[in-house]
Specification:
The protein is mainly α. The chain has 15 helices and eleven strands.
Length: 444
C-alpha cells in the first residue's frame, strides 16, 4: 500500500515517458496501432504506465488513453520542425522574429507579451535554436517586468496562442525548458480563464482586454531588436514611459516619418494611447513632430533627446540626457536593480534549501547493524550531545570514543548517514527509515 502522493508522482512520471515514446513514434512516421502494440507489449519497460491502466481500468480505457496521448504527440510533432544545421536554426529564428514584428500586439497585456516573447527570442538566439532554457526570474529581468505579470502573460497570451511551450518545469539549478513556436492565427478560439467576475460588457479579446478597432490593421511593422535592447531599462518600467512608448519607438525606427494614422496601424496602439505615448516622448525630446509626421530624434535610441531648430519653446519641456535621467524624472530609477536584488535573495534561499535536501537530512533514528544497536537519540537537532561532535564533523561513539565511519553531523546539527548507496530515492530512504524503526521497536 503506497501513499496517494507517491502514486500520483509515479503516474505523472509514467505519463511523461509514454508521451515521449509517442512523440518518437510520430517523428518516425509511425501509426497509433504501432504505438499501441509497443506500449502493451509485456517486455517493453516504457509501456508500464499504459499496462497498469489496462490492469486497473480495463483494455478499453487504456486504448482511449493511448489515443489521447497519440493525438497530442502528433499535434506537437506537426508544429515542430527538424533543424538540419545551425544555419537552418538561425533561419527559423529570423522567420520567427519577422512574424513577431508583423503581429499586432494590442492592449497593455499584448505589449507586455511582446516584451516577454522578445526576451525568449534573445535566449533562443543565444542557445542557437527554438529550444532554450530560461527561468522566470531571468525572463522577468530581461523583459523588465515583475514575475507576477510574467506568469499572467504566460497563462493568458503566449501559451494559449501557441507562441511558447514549456517542455519541462525547472528544478534545482536548471531553468525551465521552453520551445519557441509560431503563434496561432485564430486567437479567439482559445478560451482564457479569468480570475475575476466579468459582466456581459467585456471585450471580445479576453486575453488582451481590449476592443479591436478598424484603425489597427491585421499586421504591424516593428523593429523588435530595438525593443529587446531597451525593454529592460528603468525608463520603460511600469509608471515610466511604459510599453506603449517602447512599441512606438520600435515602429518609428522600423519606418521613420509616420503620421498618427500610420502609427496606429504599425504599432497596433489605439489613437488615444498613441497620443499619450508621443506626448511623453516629445517631452523628453526623443521624437520630433513636423507637420503631420513623427520621427525619432537623432540620438533617441541612446536616450539623448535634442531640441529641433524649428521647435517652439513650449514643445519640449526638457530634452533628455540619457535613459537614467528619463527614469529619474518618472520616479522609476532603480526598479531593475531592486528586482535583481530580490531575485538574488530568492536564489540564495533556494540554493540553501537545495543543499539541505541534498544531504538527505532527516530525523535521527536507531538502527541495527551487524547485530549491534547504534543509538542516535536526537529527535531534535539541538539535543545532539556536544560530546558526540568531532572537530572534522564526524560522530563519536559514546562508548568507545572512536569516530563512527558512516555518520556525519550536518551544518544544522542533525545526524546524516553516509553510505555508498547514499544516492537513493526518497521512497528508498523512507523504506530504510521504516525498516530501521521496526527493527529497533522489536528489539526494544
Amino acid at each position: 500500500m503506497s501513499l496517494r502522493g507517491n502514486r500520483q508522482g509515479a503516474a505523472e512520471h509514467g505519463h511523461r515517458i509514454t508521451a515521449a515514446i509517442a512523440c518518437h513514434v510520430a517523428r518516425a512516421r509511425g501509426t497509433v496501432e504501432q504505438l499501441t502494440q509497443l506500449l502493451l507489449h509485456p517486455d517493453h519497460e516504457g509501456g508500464r504506465h499504459a499496462r497498469s491502466i489496462a490492469l486497473r481500468s480495463g483494455q478499453s480505457r487504456a486504448l482511449a488513453y493511448i489515443g489521447r496521448v497519440w493525438a497530442s504527440a502528433s499535434a506537437a510533432v506537426s508544429r515542430t520542425r527538424v533543424l538540419e544545421s545551425r544555419h537552418h536554426a538561425y533561419e527559423v529564428l529570423a522567420a520567427l522574429r519577422d512574424r513577431i514584428e508583423t503581429t499586432p500586439w494590442r492592449g497593455e497585456r499584448g505589449r507586455t507579451a511582446l516584451r516577454v516573447l522578445r526576451a525568449h527570442l534573445n535566449f533562443a538566439q543565444i542557445a542557437g535554436g527554438p529550444l532554450h532554457h530560461a527561468s522566470e526570474r531571468q525572463t522577468a529581468e530581461e523583459a523588465g517586468i515583475s514575475r507576477t505579470t510574467l506568469r499572467v502573460v504566460y497563462e493568458t497570451v503566449l501559451k494559449p496562442w501557441g507562441w511558447l511551450r514549456r517542455l519541462r518545469v525547472g528544478h534545482g539549478r536548471e531553468g525551465s525548458t521552453w520551445y519557441l513556436a509560431e503563434g496561432s492565427a485564430d486567437r479567439h478560439s482559445t478560451p482564457v480563464a479569468q480570475s475575476r467576475f466579468r459582466t456581459t460588457q467585456y471585450p471580445p479579446d479576453l486575453a488582451l482586454e481590449e476592443w479591436p478597432t478598424s484603425e489597427t490593421g491585421t499586421t504591424a511593422d516593428l523593429d523588435s531588436t530595438v525593443i529587446g535592447r531597451l525593454m529592460g531599462h528603468d525608463a520603460f518600467a511600469h509608471r515610466g514611459l511604459g510599453s506603449a512608448a517602447l512599441v512606438v519607438i520600435g515602429a518609428l525606427h522600423a519606418r521613420p516619418a509616420q503620421t498618427v494614422a500610420e502609427l496606429v496601424g504599425s504599432s497596433s496602439v489605439s489613437r488615444a494611447t498613441l497620443y499619450r505615448a508621443l506626448r511623453r516622448l516629445a517631452d523628453h525630446g526623443l521624437v520630433h513632430h513636423s507637420g503631420e509626421t513623427w520621427t525619432l530624434a537623432p540620438h533617441a535610441l541612446e536616450g539623448f533627446g535634442d531640441r529641433p531648430l524649428e521647435a517652439a519653446a513650449e514643445e519640449i519641456s526638457e530634452p533628455a540626457r540619457g535613459w537614467d535621467a528619463v527614469a529619474a524624472r518618472h520616479g522609476t530609477a532603480g526598479v531593475a536593480s531592486r528586482r535583481k536584488a530580490v531575485h538574488a535573495a530568492e536564489r540564495t534561499a533556494y540554493q540553501r534549501a537545495l543543499e539541505r535536501l541534498s544531504e538527505h537530512r532527516s530525523k535521527a533514528v536507531v538502527i541495527v547493524r551487524d547485530g549491534r544497536q547504534i543509538v542516535i537519540p536526537a529527535p531534535r537537532p539541538d539535543e545532539v550531545p556536544t560530546a558526540w561532535h568531532a572537530p572534522d564533523g564526524c560522530v563519536l561513539d559514546p562508548v568507545t570514543g572512536r569516530a563512527v565511519p558512516d555518520w556525519r553531523i550536518a551544518t544544522d546539527g542533525r545526524l546524516i548517514l553516509i553510505t555508498p548507496a547514499d544516492q537513493r530515492s526518497y521512497d528508498e530512504l523512507a523504506a530504510a527509515h521504516a525498516e530501521a524503526r521496526s527493527e529497533w521497536e522489536s528489539a526494544a
